[in-house]
Amino acid sequence: MLRKIVKIDQEKCNGCGQCVPSCAEGAIRIVNGKAVLAADNLCDGLGACLGDCPLGAITVEEREADEFDEAAVERHLKAQGRDIAPHQKAQASQASPGHHHHGGGCPGSRAMSFSRPTGESTDQPKGSRQSQLGQWPVQLSLVSTSAPYFQGADLLITADCVPVAYAGYHEDFLKGKAVVMGCPKLDDNGFYQQKLTELFIKSDIRSITVLKMEVPCCGGIALATRQALAASGKQIPYREVVITLQGEVKE
């Protein structure tokens, strides 16, 4: 049948893989260093992955292709150990009032900026707290290095155990900052360095704060940041803060 479907320019694609998590159907995979469609019937043609390709290698074309098969998608996702139903993407991709979206992507990885109230609310339920998160996504592996919320921002780079260990994370560190986070023990610190270098080069970052736990493995995220800053050739004010396992600040 003639329908719209994603097209990946193999000449432009560098295999970075940023498009892969944006496809809720799991239709894109990396083969021999290039992004490819696993099968035509897995692609719904909505182009949710377009905005996450830094090289513009993904477009939507109209051509003869197998009909989109939701049942095939569900089997495909189940085989991958994923349980994200394809209809969830369409439902969740409707923009909520007050949210500003940049580019495409599935709801879990599409860049968003949030408006936060400037004043304190007097009618909040007892025990409630105002989130200071001003963007989405936050995972370093998912953020776009050209997202608008990084321009002119104070950047908080957080080891992802910190918000659990430190009770005052939002007010004391996150407020007013753009944030990226990850686990230096479980993730690839070489990737962190490469991604952060690109972020520092592309964005007018005003300051950098690295927030890490006191455990030795957490030092990787700080090392990757320092190496990325050196590789970028920029002079950006840098601060490193350690959080103890008891939730105390140690600089």
TrEMBL record:
Gene3D superfamilies reported for this sequence? 3.30.70.20
Q: Where is the composition biased (Polar residues)?
A: 115-131
- SUPFAM superfamilies assigned: 4Fe-4S ferredoxins
Q: Which top-rank group of organisms is this from?
A: Bacteria
Q: What is this protein called?
A: 4Fe-4S ferredoxin, iron-sulfur binding domain protein
Q: Which PROSITE patterns match?
A: 4FE4S_FER_2 (PS51379)
Residues in 4Fe-4S ferredoxin-type domain copies: 4-33, 34-63
Question: Which Pfam family is one of those matched by this entry?
Answer: Fer4_6
Can you tell me which residues the record assigns to a coiled coil? none
Which InterPro entries does the protein's record reference?
A: 4Fe4S_Fe-S-bd, Corrinoid_activation_enz
Could you tell me which residues belong to the region Disordered?
A: 81-131
